[in-house]
């Protein structure tokens, strides 16, 4: 052994190991699943590398478990790709994934409850410290010589040692020195049961060391079937096996919400096994989030995170795709333009949407779980996938004025079935929150006439609606736009309306002169009941919520020119129309405009000026009352 040095863990690893060592987990055995899964991945990577490097021996790949009761150690070994010295430092001494801090914060104070998060953040190896007081890793890369093996040793405190050793064979051995009280993991039958539970589906042998009592020789007994689960007939696979396979490929300790296993034969031959998780991962809302499909070709692992087969709005789908038609040495660049890839992509999108549709139709409760976790991601679909727009639109769920609940349970089919007779459009409003949408002044006329309005409060909703034009031949209509059809819903007597508009024409002209180019126009509106004024945008102009979305993504936002609309029946508007004093008239109009802007945008450029104006007018009212009473 030479070249030994002591290195310090990355600060995030220190925090992680402290949690592992000093916290009690309800499911400690998860460490074995993670280490066997890592060993399996190392073997799969070697098999893939052998496709382009002819002199690599990749037969008889395996994972082995050895128990030494005398020394109280448990060893998990593989003859996979192995690691070089710098790879050991990178993989075991630091955590490159940005999700580690999120993982640590996700654990919070209730470590037992959240132990299932292990693995989701690329920290599966460190779960070894749940049961170990010391961990040794002996590894040799397939590209290294016998004298270039690496030994990594740590007690899970602040540092670790790394040195160069002689290692006869390639691959990795992880030796766990078990803590006091963890003797159950020295019981071969307990280890067998764990492997049978978690690793039955591993596509290479998982073997445990046994002794031949006659001649005291070492034997390796295979525990699992070592047959890729997706290659077996569906009738041979039970529900628990599907669930455990999902946990293996996803590093998620929750059961999946649903899955779809399909084998296609004919012009193209492939097998797909797709899962929908029960819970969204921590970085689901990041559109750069890695996709969850693993690509196999003729049962040979090719790559993780195969984003070529599903669009971004389905990035939550986990699973595998195994093709018999793609070449074994295929690269990511070739995948991008390969016509077989494009055909598979279309088929997998269709299969994924069918799986979601089935969930919505057959199990509304589970679909509500799905929608809560992944609804905002699915809302990206209308912009990304015009070919499947109808399918996606039917899967969308909303809050509405009928349900009076923050839960998004209303489908567009539900809405259209409840539409009023002669109702031509599907009405909706976008806002910063459910309460802001529900209590918006734009809804006053619709509430009065009992017309249902969809309440959209997710940040992505405005962008989504810009790509939805109609459903079941009913066009969508935002209630915050300036549209004559909305005024027509008010059922105002036409003659009376004309007289009102004629009598208030000087009032409107006076406001136009006062506000000038600060507004795009000034109109009267008959769709308000309790509110004196609102601001609206024209149908083709940028909306308030779209501007906020642009701003949130760091894009330059053009100034929005609003149309100022006043309610001629409101007592305050009637009062303002009769004010002759220019200063007082200006104060009232500015007050109406500020209120309308605040209702539309949720903010004001100068809130202090707004409160001062209100206080000034209240003081004038108080003083006027005092004068009248004396």
Structure in words:
There is one protein chain. By secondary structure, this protein is an alpha+beta fold. It has four domains: 2-222, Heat Shock Protein 90, CATH 3.30.565; 229-368, 2-Layer Sandwich (Ribosomal Protein S5, domain 2), CATH 3.30.230; 397-480, Rossmann fold (3-Layer(aba) Sandwich), CATH 3.40.50.11260; 490-629, Heat shock protein 90, C-terminal domain (Four Helix Bundle (Hemerythrin (Met), subunit A)). It is 37% helix and 19% strand. It has 22 helices and 22 strands. A hairpin with a 6-residue loop joins strand 8 and strand 9 (218-222).
The gist of it:
It holds the Pfam family HSP90. The protein is an alpha+beta fold.
Topology:
Elements (H helix, E strand, L loop, with lengths): L1 E7 L2 H12 L7 H20 L13 E6 L4 E6 L6 H9 L6 H8 L24 E9 L8 E6 L4 E7 L5 E8 L9 H11 L7 E6 L6 E5 L16 H12 L7 E7 L5 E7 L15 E6 L2 E4 L14 E6 L8 H6 L1 H24 L1 H15 L2 H4 L4 H7 L3 E2 L11 H6 L7 E6 L3 H5 L5 H5 L5 E3 L4 H5 L4 E2 L2 E5 L5 H5 L5 H10 L1 H11 L5 E4 L8 E4 L7 H9 L10 E4 L4 H7 L4 H20 L5 H23 L1
Parallel strand pairs: 2-8, 12-14, 16-17, 16-19, 20-22
Antiparallel strand pairs: 1-6, 2-3, 3-7, 4-5, 4-7, 5-6, 8-9, 10-11, 11-14, 12-13, 15-17, 18-19, 21-22
Helix pairs in contact: 8-9, 8-11
Q: What would the CATH topology of the largest domain be?
A: Heat Shock Protein 90
Unreliable stretches: 96-100, 109-122
CATH class of the largest domain: Alpha Beta
Second rung of CATH, namely the architecture of the largest domain: 2-Layer Sandwich
The number of helical segments is 22
Radius of gyration of CA atoms, rounded to a whole number? 33 Å
Q: Could you say how many structural domains there are in total?
A: 4
The gross shape turns out to be elongated
Helix content: 25-40%
Strand content: 15-25%
Largest sheet: 9 strands, mixed
Oligomer: single chain
Measure the end-to-end span. Answer: 103 Å
Structural class: alpha+beta
Q: What is the assigned CATH homologous superfamily of the largest domain?
A: Histidine kinase-like ATPase, C-terminal domain
On the 0-100 scale, what is the average pLDDT? 86
Side-by-side strand order of the widest sheet: 1-6-5-4-7-3-2-8-9
Please provide the count of β strands.
Answer: 22
Keywords: ATP-binding, Chaperone, Cytoplasm, Nucleotide-binding, Stress response
Binding site for ATP: 34, 38, 78, 83, 91, 98-99, 120-125, 172, 332
Region (B): 333-548
InterPro entries: HATPase_C_sf, HATPase_dom, Heat_shock_protein_90_CS, HSP90_C, Hsp90_fam, Hsp90_N, Ribosomal_Su5_D2-typ_SF
């Amino acid at each position: 052994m030479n070249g030994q040095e002591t290195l310090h863990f990355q600060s995030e690893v220190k925090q992680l190991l402290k949690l592992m060592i000093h916290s009690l987990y309800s499911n400690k055995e998860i460490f074995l699943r993670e280490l066997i899964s890592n060993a399996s991945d190392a073997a799969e990577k070697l098999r893939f590398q052998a496709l382009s490097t002819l002199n690599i021996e990749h037969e008889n790949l395996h994972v082995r478990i050895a128990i030494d009761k005398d020394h109280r150690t448990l060893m998990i070994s593989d003859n996979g790709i192995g690691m070089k010295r710098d790879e050991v430092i990178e993989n075991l001494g630091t955590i490159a994934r940005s999700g580690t801090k999120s993982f640590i914060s996700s654990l919070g104070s209730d470590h037992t409850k959240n132990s299932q998060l292990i693995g989701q953040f690329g920290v599966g190896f460190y779960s070894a410290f749940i049961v170990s007081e010391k961990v040794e890793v002996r590894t040799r890369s397939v590209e290294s010589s016998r004298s270039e093996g690496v030994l990594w040793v740590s007690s899970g405190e602040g540092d670790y040692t790394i040195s160069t050793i002689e290692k006869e064979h390639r691959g990795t051995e992880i030796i766990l020195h078990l803590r006091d009280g963890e003797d159950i993991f020295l019981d071969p039958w307990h280890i067998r049961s764990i492997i049978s539970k978690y690793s039955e589906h591993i596509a290479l042998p998982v073997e445990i060391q046994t002794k031949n009592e006659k001649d005291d020789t070492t034997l390796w007994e295979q525990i699992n079937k070592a047959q890729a689960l997706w290659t077996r007939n569906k009738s041979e696979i039970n529900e628990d096996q599907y669930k455990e396979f999902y946990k293996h490929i996803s590093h998620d300790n929750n059961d999946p919400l649903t899955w779809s296993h399909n084998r296609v034969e004919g012009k193209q031959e492939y097998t797909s096994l797709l899962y929908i998780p029960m819970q969204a991962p921590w970085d689901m809302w990041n559109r750069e989030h890695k996709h969850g499909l693993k690509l196999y070709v003729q049962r040979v692992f090719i790559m993780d995170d195969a984003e070529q087969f599903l669009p971004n709005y389905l990035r939550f789908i986990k699973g595998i795709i195994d093709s018999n038609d793609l070449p074994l040495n295929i690269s990511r660049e070739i995948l991008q333009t390969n016509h077989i890839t494009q055909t598979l992509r279309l088929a997998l999108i269709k299969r994924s949407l069918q799986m979601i549709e089935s969930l919505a139709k057959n199990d509304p409760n589970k679909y509500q779980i799905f929608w809560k976790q992944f609804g905002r991601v699915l809302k990206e679909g209308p912009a990304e996938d015009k070919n499947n727009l109808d399918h996606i639109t039917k899967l969308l769920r909303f809050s509405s004025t009928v349900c009076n609940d923050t839960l998004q349970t209303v489908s567009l089919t539900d809405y259209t079935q409840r539409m009023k007779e002669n109702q031509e459009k599907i009405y909706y409003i976008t806002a910063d929150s459910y309460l802001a949408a529900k209590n918006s002044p734009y809804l006053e006329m619709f509430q009065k006439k009992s017309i249902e309005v969809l309440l959209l409060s997710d940040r992505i909703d405005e962008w989504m609606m810009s790509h939805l034009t109609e459903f079941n031949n009913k066009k969508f209509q935002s209630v915050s736009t300036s549209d004559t059809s909305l005024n027509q819903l008010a059922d105002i007597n036409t003659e009376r309306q004309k007289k009102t508009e004629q009598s208030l024409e000087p009032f409107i002209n006076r406001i136009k002169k006062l506000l000038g180019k600060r507004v795009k126009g000034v109109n009267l509106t008959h769709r308000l009941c309790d509110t004196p004024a609102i601001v609206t945008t024209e149908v083709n102009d940028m909306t308030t919520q779209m501007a906020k979305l642009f701003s949130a993504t760091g894009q330059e936002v053009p100034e929005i020119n609003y149309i100022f609309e006043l309610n001629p029946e409101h007592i305050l508007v009637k009062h303002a129309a009769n004010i002759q004093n220019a200063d007082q008239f200006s104060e009232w109009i500015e007050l109406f405009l500020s209120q309308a802007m605040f209702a539309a945008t949720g903010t004001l450029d100068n809130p202090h000026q707004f409160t001062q104006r209100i206080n000034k007018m209240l003081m004038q009212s108080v003083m006027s009352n005092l004068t009248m009473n004396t």
